[in-house]
Structures are given as structure tokens and as C-alpha cells.
Amino acid sequence: MNYPNGIKKKSIISNISHKNRGMTLENDLNETNEYYREIDKAYIYKKPTPIKITKVDYPSRDKAVIKEAFFTIPSTTDYNGVYNGKYIDFEAKETKNNTSFPLANIHSHQIEHIKNIYNHQGIVFIIIRFTNLNETFLLLGKDFLDFINNNNRKSIPITFFREKAYLIKENYRPRLDYLKIIDKIIGGI
User: Fold this and answer.
1) What is the pTM of this model?
2) Which CATH class is domain 22-186?
């Protein structure tokens, strides 16, 4: 930028990093679930990954460092809890792919878990964010399982999400009000 008297100022805008501009899907969901707990609407939590710690370095009690650990059992889905007396369970994934969601991102034991929750009348779904498109969808477990059972594809096309899934609009609070969609589907439980 040129200023009067020939003084040149370097633009501060060029120094701004655009990395990690948006929050990750996990952060958005954690913030949303915290909001639901604050207003006493639902109690939904991120499940911790089950690990077994085998080696810890204890330089002092407050500075313990895990040096070695391994996964004990395959994890199921990312989130579970209770909403109006109903069990709720879902997986959340992000993809940078613009045309489809690769099914390799969801493991067979997770698909089996979704099937089991669906068969026991739990509320089960997946939330998929197409990062580059800035679109986040809620796909019911039933529709997800129907796709897997009736297609030989290795990915779910974006067109399927746009036809069968529900677009979750981003808000201030809650960030991703997915329970608003669940209320519409189930009939305002």
C-alpha cells in the first residue's frame, strides 16, 4: 500500500494464516453437546478411545508421561448418550473429497455397531462433513445401512447425501443443532 510522502507500509493481511480457519467437526460437536448439557436438553458425550497404558515415565507426580500404550478393543462410534429417554449414538467423520464419502473411513465393527443400535430401536446416525464444500450432513442409520446393503460402491456419493440426508446448518449456539433434525424426523420427542 502506498501512502503520501512515499512511505510504504507492509500489509498486515499478508501475515494472517488461513490454516485451521474453521473448527473441526469434532470441536463443533463437542461444543454443541456441551450446550445441550448446559440447557438440560440432552446428555451426549464423546467416547474415549479404549487404550491400555503399558509404560509411563514418572519424573514427578504431576509430570507423568505415557511412553507406550496400545488400543485394547476396537472403538464403536464417536458419541453416545440420552435424549428424552432415548438412547442416541452416532459416528462423525470429515472428508476433503468433493464428490463422495469413502466407506473405508468407517470400519466394519462400527457398521456392525450402527446396525445393532438400529435393530434395538436406538437413535443412530452418522454425521459427515464435506470440508471443502462446507456442508455437514446427518444421515440416519437406516439410510446408511440401506446404502451399504444395496450398493457395491466403495463410497457414498455427495448426491446421495443431498437426496437422503439432512443438511445441518451452522449456528452460533448450538454450533450444529442436530437434535433439531432428530426432533423433525421422530416427531418432536
Assistant:
1) 0.78
2) alpha beta
